[in-house]
Amino acid sequence: MNLLSRSIIIGALLSVSLGSPLKVAAEGKIANTQTVVANVGFATPESIEYYAAEDVYLVSNLNGGGLEAAGNGFISKVAPDGSLINLKWIDGTKKDTVLNSPKGLAIQGNKLYVADINQVHIFELPSGKQKNSVDIKGSTFLNGITPGTDGSVYVTDSGLKAGKNGYAPSDSDAIYKIGANGSYELIFKDKYRGHPNGIINNGHELIVVTFGSGKVFRVDAAGKRHAMPAPPKGGLDGLLQLDDGRLIISSWGESAIYVLQNNSYRILADNLDAPADLGFDTKRKRLLIPLFKQDKLVFLPLE
Fold this sequence. Notes:
Layout: E1 9-15, E2 33-38, E3 45-51, E4 56-61, E5 74-78, E6 84-91, E7 102-108, E8 111-116, E9 119-124, E10 130-135, E11 142-147, E12 153-157, E13 160-163, E14 166-169, E15 174-178, E16 184-189, E17 196-201, E18 206-210, E19 216-219, E20 225-228, E21 236-241, E22 247-251, E23 256-261, E24 264-269, E25 279-281, E26 286-291, E27 296-301
Antiparallel strand pairs: 1-2, 2-27, 3-4, 4-5, 5-6, 7-8, 8-9, 9-10, 11-12, 12-15, 13-14, 15-16, 17-18, 18-19, 19-20, 21-22, 22-23, 23-24, 25-26, 26-27
């Protein structure tokens, strides 16, 4: 995740409030600066993905509520210096494009997968042309998504529906696997799983964080759940695992980014309102953070 624009406003290299100094990459230290990209037209940015082949960032924008099927969601393309390349690179209002409330993004080969309510959309890269959509029966709030090791992707259903005062449980909490051929299968389902959100596949198991219960757990190859240490506060959204094995987790409850190392948590950065699905710029060793409620991006570099 990653890095001044001309006509757009960027809060360049603002101070960031940090917890204890901490290594995050194998040979890197936390920098005490951040770059903020704001006032460029983002509309509820939820996820950022680094597209290494073009050295750009892709940003999903709900442009409405999380369950609104208004056909106006969009995906932005942003340069690493923070300048806006194309606000609506993929635009749900365009003919032949279906995009309602896009959330998690994952790149698998030359395809971009996008989680969207009860569908996962597949777009060609680098063109951005839509190939098809996978309807996942029984799902209500597809959210986090991660590449698999066999050309597949895994996606979480946070198990939410419209309620009297916002969202309500739909009891559809689950994890699905979508194959390279577009078929899907249920991997894990339990209505008491606390609204699973961020997910990663580290090659031999899945790791999941929950937004509702604030838990972190592993799912092994047999589909069995294993508890992991839970952070001090919940509202867990984005999840990354670095090459050295450390987990980075965004928390709405703490308004912060946690690092889980040796079964204990430290705060990497705080004062971040509603940090959503995280991305990582592998070239610049930079954490990419969308601020869901503020229509901003934050790039946190590592030295």
